[in-house]
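Give me structure tokens for this 155-residue protein.
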Amino acid sequence: YKLLGKEMSFILDALELVDVWIVIGESIVGPRFQNINNDRIRVIRDYPLTRYYQAFDFTIMAGAFETFHTSVQHSLPAICIPTIGIESESRDRRIENAVDKGFMRIVNGLSKKQLNTVIEDIMDKQTRQDMWDSVIYLHKPNGADQVSGFILENI
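Here you go.
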């Protein structure tokens, strides 16, 4: 699931109020963003986006499986705006767990006040550092690394 047009517009409006550069990771198979006339917005279509994660301070996502786990794996703090109208118990549990651990902030619905508060919070360097520090509680062992280590130990 991706952020839909209404969520994207909502986010861009909120980010206009703060001094940030915005990078939109656009789907290579979906429709193109049109009429983005802002010097602080960049649209990238180069995949995998993870090549650029070290350059980002945080991400805003819908919380879908792959995006969520990629953010956790790369320790990229996140604001999650679950896509309205798409119910998913597993997505909601993932997000709640990350929020409880301190790694993620959530915005329910399209509340400008709540989003502005969360953006203000995540713009603070100490807050982001605390989020980076808390992600260790979400990291899981990588099965491929475990198996390769086992094979190497037993050869």
